[in-house]
């Protein structure tokens, strides 16, 4: 169902993303490395899960790995790969090939990621290709003791020498992911290795309305057009919030109760993300609060921070704003900054 809150894993469960699927298929055919990019809750993970449901591959949730300890080790990553044993078995059964993955049967400390990638490349030779997908891949910069450089070297090796292996990286903190990969940085192991990039954007107004209509029709519920119009004006095309609202409307059969519940849940999720952001620097949240209150130009943000006893030198403020753009929290247009998520303003009150 379109309004199912669980992650989508089939193409038919995903609304109006045919272009993204076509571009992903084209990129996988052309490049060893593909980036699937977009802001939070826009549907990247669902697109990726559905694609992997149709093609041989596995998905690693990097944010989950990072959340366990605040860093990612080689053993963490190998254990996660080993936990996909049942998926490997299903792939082998589907393609009627013999599974010979030695790394599944040894201790993580004795395993080599490079050797694992070689084994998966051999599997890809039998299945046509094999995909290793890393969701929220910007968290891989917390791998090891060198900011993930060992992984980048491994990706470069796969790019150059493992023709049956495809790597997909998703990222909601787009700028941070680009910085981590360093494709344009001559000091990065991935320097000069061109990959495909697919941007998943929020729905426009008409597509958002069509999505809600389709979801309610699927559930056999008639909803006044004015309720759909009001919902779209508030939710602003972000599929994650549209799904949540649709689910709550089916539950309550009342616009205001459904919207209130959507706002409360979204606020809780965003508060958790803001808390993580504040641990990096409380000025990040100060800047977001300034923008949410309408202090959306550089000088106004500077003055707001000073008023709140967070005086910030000009070079540092430029850096903080640049980082917030890279993390996908804000965008800039004609010298004005605005929040990318319409509900962030609610959480910042």
Automatic annotation (TrEMBL):
Give the molecular function GO annotations: ATP binding
- Cross-referenced Gene3D superfamilies, in alphabetical order? 1.10.8.60, P-loop containing nucleotide triphosphate hydrolases (3.40.50.300), Winged helix-like DNA-binding domain superfamily/Winged helix DNA-binding domain (1.10.10.10)
SUPFAM superfamilies, per the entry: P-loop containing nucleoside triphosphate hydrolases, Winged helix' DNA-binding domain
Q: Which PANTHER family match?
A: ATPASE DOMAIN-CONTAINING PROTEIN, DNA-BINDING PROTEIN-RELATED
* Domain ATPase residue range list: 15-243
Q: What region holds the MCM C-terminal domain?
A: 279-338
Q: Does the keyword ATP-binding apply?
A: yes
**Stated name of the protein:** ATP-binding protein
Keywords, alphabetical: ATP-binding, Nucleotide-binding
Upper taxonomic lineage: Archaea, Methanobacteriati, Methanobacteriota, Thermococci, Thermococcales
């Amino acid at each position: 169902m379109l309004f199912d809150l669980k992650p989508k894993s089939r193409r038919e469960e995903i609304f109006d993303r045919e272009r993204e699927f076509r571009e992903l298929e084209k990129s996988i055919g052309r490049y060893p490395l593909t980036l699937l990019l977009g802001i939070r809750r826009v549907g990247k993970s669902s697109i990726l899960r559905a694609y992997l449901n149709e093609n041989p591959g596995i998905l690693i949730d990097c944010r989950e790995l990072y959340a366990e300890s605040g860093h990612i080790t080689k053993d963490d990553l190998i254990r996660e790969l080993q936990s996909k044993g049942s998926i490997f078995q299903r792939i082998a059964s589907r393609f009627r090939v013999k599974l010979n993955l030695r790394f599944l049967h040894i201790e993580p400390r004795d395993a080599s990621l490079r050797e694992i990638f070689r084994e998966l490349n051999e599997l890809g030779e039998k299945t046509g290709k094999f995909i290793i997908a890393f969701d929220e891949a910007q968290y891989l910069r917390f791998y090891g003791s060198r900011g993930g450089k060992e992984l980048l070297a491994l990706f470069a090796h796969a790019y150059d020498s493992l023709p049956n292996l495809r790597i997909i990286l998703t990222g909601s903190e787009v700028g941070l992911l680009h910085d981590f990969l360093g494709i344009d940085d001559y000091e990065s192991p991935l320097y000069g290795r061109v990959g495909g990039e697919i941007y998943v954007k929020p729905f426009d107004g008409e597509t958002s309305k069509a999505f809600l209509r389709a979801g309610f029709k699927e559930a056999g519920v008639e909803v006044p057009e004015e309720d759909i119009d009001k919902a779209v004006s508030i939710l602003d095309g972000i599929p994650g919030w549209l799904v949540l609202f649709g689910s709550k409307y089916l539950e309550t059969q009342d616009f205001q109760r459904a919207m209130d519940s959507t706002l409360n849940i979204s606020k809780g999720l965003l508060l958790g993300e803001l808390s993580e952001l504040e641990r990096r620097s409380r000025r990040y949240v100060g800047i977001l609060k300034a923008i949410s209150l309408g202090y959306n130009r550089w000088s106004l943000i500077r003055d707001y921070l000073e008023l709140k006893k967070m005086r910030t030198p000009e070079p540092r403020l430029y850096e903080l704003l640049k980082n917030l753009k890279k993390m996908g929290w804000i965008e800039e247009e004609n010298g004005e900054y605005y929040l990318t998520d319409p509900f962030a303003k609610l959480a910042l009150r």
